Request: fold
Amino acid sequence: MSVAILRQGDYLIASIQVDLSDSQVLELRDDLSERIGRARARGLIIDVAALDVIDSFVARSLGSIAITARLRGAETVITGIEPDVAIAMVQFDLDLAPLRTALDLDEALSLLDRLTQGVGEDGA
Amino acid sequence: MNQENQSNEDPSRQMPEVDRSLLHELVAYLRDNRTELREEWVARITQAQLLEVMTPEEIFSEVTAVYDNYVDALETGSIETLQAYARDLSERIIPRGVETHEVLGIVLLLRDVLARALFVEYQRDADLLNRILDAYEPAANRIAVTVSVSFVEERERVIREQQEAIRELSTPVLQVRDRLLILPIIGVLDSARARQLTEQLLGAIQANRAKVVVIDITGVATIDLTVANHLVQTVEAARLMGASAIITGLSSKIAQTLVDLGVDLSMMRTVGDLQGGLEEAERLIGHRPAAKGSRPDAAAT
Amino acid sequence: MEHEVRVPITSDADLVPARAEGRSLAQALGFSQTDATLIATAISEIARNIVVHARSGEIVMTGIQQPHRYGLVIVASDAGPGIPEIDTALERGHTSRRSLGLGLPGARRLMDEFEVETDAAKGTTVTMTKWRPRDELERLRARRRERA
Reply:
């Protein structure tokens, strides 16, 4: 299976296991959209450590997932961006502003806790 | 049997066949007269003002080893032992400040001293002298090249290690407190260093699970567009790894440069001095920070 | 040493091996982890271009060696309809956010050399190269190995 999706309380954790083709990325987007609704999740964590690269398509797709998730009431956090991938992403000059990121799972969970409890400064 | 040999051939090859009995004879001569020839060599070294960083005792000890290795190499035709010795010698003398021209110089002097000695010994028979020199010269030249190349390689290895150490020293990432890193940058910031800085910083963020990084550029005098962009990219890359970056020590000169260059500073937090930056960092870590990387109602991509 | 790897690009699934081969070849040539990722990312963009605009094509990756540097040359070619107004497309620079997914300006930023030949009749060929300098010591060693 290319993506493992677990539930932890109010959150969904999607852990990508292998480098994904574009079609698989789109499938993931649809899959997550449906699951968030079903689980009434308030938060989504996507671990991208297994992705070989994060190029313009992947970045856009992650942004798209985050927007869809928010429409369904969930905040999204991306984790697992390694130093070399981060450097490639910024050098590529992608529009990364919409993506929320955290260093690892622990940080992502703390971040989601802060975001989903009361009004944060982001006005969500 | 005489042979034409290119004396600058790669030393890693065995020396080609020369008249073995002749070689044997001249090697025997060089061994028998070891003491005198070695002394003469040292005299020439001193006269040429080489190896002045070494004491007479050190010079004596090294020249003895070189002489013996040299003659062995002439005899066996194999330069492996000589190479190993040359590397070892280089490792010892490079930190003392001995330079390439000195090493090459002393080897050539030895070659000359021995050649002259052979002249003197065999001058009565011109034909024999020619054959002796035919045997000696290519071997001696190959030795010179071997020793020099070994020295140069060792020197380059040392220089590279030093460069690496300097690079690391000059971009130290310090863990000040839990989850907080400081990166003080001093001196000239060029593209290569900026890239190395980014990689080091991101690695440190990962290793220390840092939430805030304070990049202090008080010690940087000037900055150009390329480097400014590197800085902006570094901040952004740190954010992708879940850390906020604060730039401190921005001089008014650099600030003006950045403005003139049209660098987008909106994504960068800047604070005047390091102290202020640390306080801001503490605030970010300790209190409810603004959710990292959040942009309210981002436009669809 | 000339390593050559060919990856046919006929569907989006081919991007996965293309990225992996690119990274692998880059590492074999001694590129740093970061540079290997930059290269794989550029390959991903160019390969996607083929799939999206031309449906099929090929990527050829070659490791080359010069006296002072190593290089990884990537040639992506297709027989598609060409890229209209290529000069504008390449000049987009910061407007990659509004790009039609061409990814070319982005890929160009990641590589050292970048050239595009495009033609409605013949299709498109993108040639991009990343270099890594060789230092003195490596060169000396290589010379001795060659002679041994």
